[in-house]
């Protein structure tokens, strides 16, 4: 297959190298901005001016001061290569089309975001230097809610809070499914990054149905049934006819998704959250092996979080409360603090949904499965006043919470957080080796193992929160190096990440092989020959 | 309308009466309180329309109150913080706090919010630092 004649992947880093040679500040904004390869300062200025003509002066940012809200990030960026050089905020599909036309004219790359709160993965910062954020948050219309089919069609700026409010104000008995920062993020962005929630509808891409995509040349594609003469099944039937296209617009830079359909779960008559506590870290394999058949048979229907004590404690406590020494917190210190707070070393949160009889029968099976491996199954009544239980009981019914933002305070006031999320099959044999490797790499760099496992239908996500003090430049460098070693170390053992932040997209993409990268490059070249959409996203130039 | 009702499931009334929480045995948790507070302040935006400008109480309940006064961020009500301080904190974030863009909290919403927070009395229901 023919590809681009220039090495665009190599060019992604060229801006930084040039800036360093010229002694330009690493903070890539305003007058000292590090531009995208091939873009001149006059091109950026002209593009920003043309954007103002489309959306109005107040919805374009292009200097250091006005760009601050788009530059805040929790992920490590020691060389300042991820800050955007501008931002433009359209409020309609027509404005998006006009902006893409201008971007093509000036070859100015754009970095689309929906709600821009992908905290720990980069927020509104960009994978490569010199990009203008295409901020879709103002496109926040809920376009339809079908109470019979239990579906919705929304724009990228709609938050889960907004959708929840709409359903409540209209007494519509449907649940939403949220990630851990639900109030300020939304279905489109989370689904496009293939994020998860914790009800039975937790695999967000699985319950996505139909997209409207503005392509780089301004054409509008409606996937699935959306382009037929009677698109009434747009939110009912995912697959349409011919090649299924929705997937290529997730974790990619092939188009700008401006509408997305999703399925909503009917509120069940009975909802029963439970936690299974285990006191020993080495119980991890037995828990996964016990949970796998329950998930596959759908007896436990929700995305299960198996939370390590350290991750749980980091939500509501600061490191100094647990351990005053230097270096990683010893396991014994976590164990002692966890016991004092009614937590196990593993706290596995599941929920049952349905009629009383369904829930009772499922609970009987679940209790038997965990009694066999010394699991302590606790109910909501038994966990009264336990903030961790209430946090997870909230998430497993699609309730809204920002309590996980507390993680950013673990190492002090600096607010550093990067999610590392390798994937394995849901087998106990895949767990202890990962934990040992994580401890080894994190300890080398002086960081704590604050982690959980999410158990899906067949897979196991290891979710490691790399928590560091971003206000300390030396620690930020160390966190960056640590993250890279986690990616490569786990990748070498076959545990590649399912998702990553803007700081490591190329590194993770490399683990999926050259053929995969060549196919992505060919699609990119066909759909966006000027490479104006988010070069560097998922390692695709 | 309710799927469970159509299935003839006993207990569907709970679905209709309490769609947000369904049937749980526990008292309302603190997290549920925030969501309930937010939902109690209607946004009133119809289908197909952009989100209307939110009142300061709605903005506070929909965004700020999930952290501030909820164990995550410091309590800010009743402290008579200066409006400029509030505006800067919202736009830039500080430490663990996210920055909120004009596309998320509009300039008009932020102006009203800053005035409201600076004048608001403390809320005894809030807790934390």
Give your account of this protein's structure:
The complex is a heterodimer of chains A (541) and B (129). Chain A has helices at residues 8-11, 14-22, 41-55, 68-71, 93-106, 160-169, 187-192, 284-296, 309-316, 319-322, 331-340, 356-371, 387-395, 432-445, 473-492, 505-509, 514-527; strands at 60-61, 86-88, 110-113, 132-135, 142-146, 151-154, 174-175, 208-214, 220-222, 256-263, 265-266, 270-278, 304-308, 346-354, 376-379, 416-420, 423-425, 451-455, 459-468. The model of chain A is unreliable at 1-5 and 14-30 (pLDDT under 50). Chain A is α+β, with helices and mostly antiparallel strands. Chain A is globular, with a radius of gyration of 23 Å. In chain A, helix 3 packs antiparallel against helix 5 (93-106) and helix 14 (432-445) packs antiparallel against helix 15. Chain A is 32% helix and 17% strand. In chain A, strand 18 (451-455) and strand 19 (459-468) form a beta hairpin. Chain B has a domain at 52-129: Cytochrome Bc1 Complex, Chain D, domain 2, CATH 1.10.760.10. Chain B has helices at 3-6, 12-17, 30-40, 56-62, 83-92, 107-119. In chain B, 37% of the residues are buried. The chains are: A alpha+beta (541), B mainly alpha (129).
């Amino acid at each position: 297959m023919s590809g681009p004649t220039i090495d665009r992947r190599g060019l992604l880093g060229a801006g930084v190298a040039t800036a360093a040679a010229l002694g330009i500040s690493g903070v890539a904004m305003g007058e000292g901005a590090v531009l995208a390869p091939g873009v001149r300062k006059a091109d950026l200025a002209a593009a920003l001016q043309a954007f103002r003509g489309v959306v109005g002066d107040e919805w374009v940012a292009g200097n250091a001061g006005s760009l601050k809200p788009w530059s805040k990030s929790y992920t490590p960026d020691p060389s300042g290569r991820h800050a955007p050089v501008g931002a433009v905020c359209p409020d309609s599909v027509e404005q998006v089309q006009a902006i893409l036309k201008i971007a093509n004219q000036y070859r100015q790359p754009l970095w689309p975001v929906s709600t821009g709160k992908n905290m720990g993965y980069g927020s509104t910062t960009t994978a490569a230097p010199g990009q203008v954020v295409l901020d879709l948050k103002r496109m926040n219309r809920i376009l339809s809610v079908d109470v019979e089919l239990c579906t919705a069609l929304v724009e990228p700026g709609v938050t889960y809070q907004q959708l929840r409010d709409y359903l409540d104000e209209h007494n519509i008995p449907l649940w939403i499914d949220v990630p851990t920062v639900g109030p300020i993020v939304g279905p489109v962005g989370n689904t496009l990054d293939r994020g998860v929630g914790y009800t039975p509808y937790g695999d967000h891409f699985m319950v996505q149905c139909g997209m409207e995509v503005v392509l780089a040349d301004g054409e509008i594609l409606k996937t699935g049934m959306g382009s037929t003469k009677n698109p009434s099944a747009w939110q009912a039937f995912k697959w349409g006819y011919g090649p299924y296209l929705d997937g290529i617009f997730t974790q990619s830079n092939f188009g700008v998704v401006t509408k997305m359909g999703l399925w909503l779960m009917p509120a069940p008559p009975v909802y029963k959250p439970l936690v299974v506590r285990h006191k020993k870290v080495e119980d991890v394999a037995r828990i996964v092996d016990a949970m796998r058949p329950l998930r596959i048979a759908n007896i436990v229907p929700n995305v299960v979080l198996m939370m390590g004590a350290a991750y749980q404690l980091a939500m509501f406590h600061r490191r100094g409360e647990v351990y005053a020494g230097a270096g990683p917190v010893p396991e014994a210190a976590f164990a002692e603090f966890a016991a004092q707070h009614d937590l196990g070393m593993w706290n596995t949160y599941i929920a049952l949904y349905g009629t009383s009889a369904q829930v009772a029968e499922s609970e009987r099976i679940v209790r038997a499965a965990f009694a066999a491996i010394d699991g302590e199954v606790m109910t909501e009544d038994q966990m009264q006043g336990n903030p961790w239980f209430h946090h997870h009981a909230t998430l497993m019914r699609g309730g809204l919470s920002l309590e996980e933002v507390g993680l950013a305070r673990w190492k002090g006031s600096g607010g550093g957080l990067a999610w590392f999320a390798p994937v394995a099959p849901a087998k106990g044999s895949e767990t202890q080796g990962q934990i040992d490797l994580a401890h080894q790499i994190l300890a080398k760099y002086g960081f704590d193992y604050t982690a959980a496992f999410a158990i899906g239908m067949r897979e196991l996500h290891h979710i490691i929160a790399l928590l560091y003090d971003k206000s300390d430049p030396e620690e930020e460098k160390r966190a960056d190096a640590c993250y890279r070693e986690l990616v490569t170390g786990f990748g070498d053992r076959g545990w590649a990440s399912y998702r990553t932040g803007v700081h490591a997209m190329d590194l993770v993409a490399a683990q999926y092989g050259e053929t995969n990268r060549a196919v992505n490059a060919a699609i990119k070249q066909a759909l966006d020959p000027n490479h104006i959409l988010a070069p560097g996203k998922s390692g695709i130039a | 309308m309710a799927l469970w009702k159509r299935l003839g499931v006993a207990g569907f009334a709970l679905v209709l009466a309490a769609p947000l929480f369904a049937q749980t045995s526990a008292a309302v948790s603190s997290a549920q309180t925030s969501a309930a507070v937010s939902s109690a302040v209607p946004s009133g935006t119809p289908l197909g329309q952009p989100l209307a400008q939110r009142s300061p109480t709605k903005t506070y309940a929909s965004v700020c109150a999930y952290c501030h006064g909820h164990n995550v961020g410091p309590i800010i009500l009743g402290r008579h913080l200066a409006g400029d301080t509030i505006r800067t904190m919202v736009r830039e974030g500080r430490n663990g706090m996210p920055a909120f863009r004009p596309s998320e909290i509009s300039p008009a919403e932020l102006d009203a919010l800053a005035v409201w927070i600076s004048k608001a009395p403390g809320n005894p229901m809030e807790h934390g630092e």
